[in-house]
Design a protein that fits this description.
With about 170 residues, this protein is α+β, with helices and mostly antiparallel strands. The protein is built from four helices and eleven strands; from the N terminus they run H-E-E-E-E-E-H-E-E-E-E-E-E-H-H. Strand 4 and strand 5 (about 80-85) form a beta hairpin. The longest helix has 15 residues, at about 5-15. The protein has a five-stranded mixed β-sheet with strand order 3-6-7-5-4. It has a three-stranded antiparallel β-sheet with strand order 2-1-8, with no helix packed on it. It has a three-stranded antiparallel β-sheet with strand order 9-10-11. Helices cover about 20% and strands about 40% of the residues.
Length: about 170
């Protein structure tokens, strides 16, 4: 058997034993979100609204601000407001720990960072798993998604930072 015949034989054997790719006609559209925990509750935020996920920075306290306003910090060369998401939504202080992070928001008006108890990373969310929130009670949450047999709120950071509650951060 010469080299060419041997290569033809290898190709025939490989084709005979190949398992083919799974065939599906249904392609589902997805979007990306950051899964995090704040105040003991898991939530999602669209990845396109997050500039970075960073360790909590050192911040300067702002006298007279609401309890959920943690302070100001220099983040990536910008003066950034740091806010406690658990205290804002659930009136519970965030659990400081080694897993605590800040979600640095992409906003057009100003720089904002939100302290959360933990980030679980990026998830692919099918559009078909979403629905409108039946009774919106959290500012900036208008939709929710089914994940692991729970309905998780989707936080829209743009809507949150534009809300009157957020804009009135000084007591």
């Amino acid at each position: 058997m010469n080299l060419f015949e041997y290569l033809c034989w290898v190709e025939a054997e490989a084709s005979a034993h190949a398992v083919g790719m799974p065939k599906t006609d249904k392609v589902e559209s997805t979007w990306q979100a950051v899964l995090f925990r704040a105040g003991g509750r898991r939530m999602l935020v669209p990845l396109v609204q997050v500039r970075a996920i960073l360790p909590p920075p050192r911040q300067v306290h702002i006298p007279g601000a609401k309890p959920w306003v943690v302070g100001l910090a220099n983040m990536r060369g910008e003066l950034t407001g740091v806010y406690d998401l658990a205290r804002l939504f659930f009136d519970l202080p965030s659990e400081p720990g080694r897993h605590s992070v800040v979600l640095l928001a992409k906003t057009h008006r100003f720089s904002a960072a939100f302290i959360v108890d933990r980030s679980y990373g990026i998830r692919q969310i099918p559009f078909s798993a979403e629905r409108a929130v039946k009774e919106p009670h959290l500012q900036g949450v208008l939709r929710e998604v089914r994940m692991d047999n729970d309905w998780l709120p989707i936080l829209n950071l743009e809507t949150l930072v534009e809300s009157d509650q957020f804009m009135n951060a000084v007591a």
